[in-house]
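Shapes recur. One chain:

:::
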Amino acid sequence: QLQLVESGGALVQPGGSLRLSCTGSGFSLENYIIGWFRQAPGKEREGISCVTSGRRTNYADSMKGRFTISRDGAENTVYLQMDNVKPEDTAVYYCAAEWRPRPTFCTILPTYSIWGQGTQVIVSP
């Protein structure tokens, strides 16, 4: 069974940093584009960033500068580094995967076919 497992969510103070992980269980992420999304209470799911197998990245304009996506093939994991977090970053963070063996770009629209269960991030003093 193809599963994505997110981890790393926590309670963090404003201005702090956090690194979220997304690990493939039961399959290799090598030929998948991976996206990170978040959903705050009462709001729609929004795209943060994505990365192709060739390490090409894409970011939502509002996320540039504070969020960094990366992938580690050996660990079968994609990371989302969050810096200088703000209370408005409080949300459940999801990763998602879509099969694309030779992509030239990736999308931050929530059109992916495989989703994780999410990890909670709370930014509060």
Notes: The two ends are 39 Å apart (CA to CA). The mean pLDDT is 96. DSSP finds no helices and eleven strands in the chain. The longest strand covers residues 91-99.
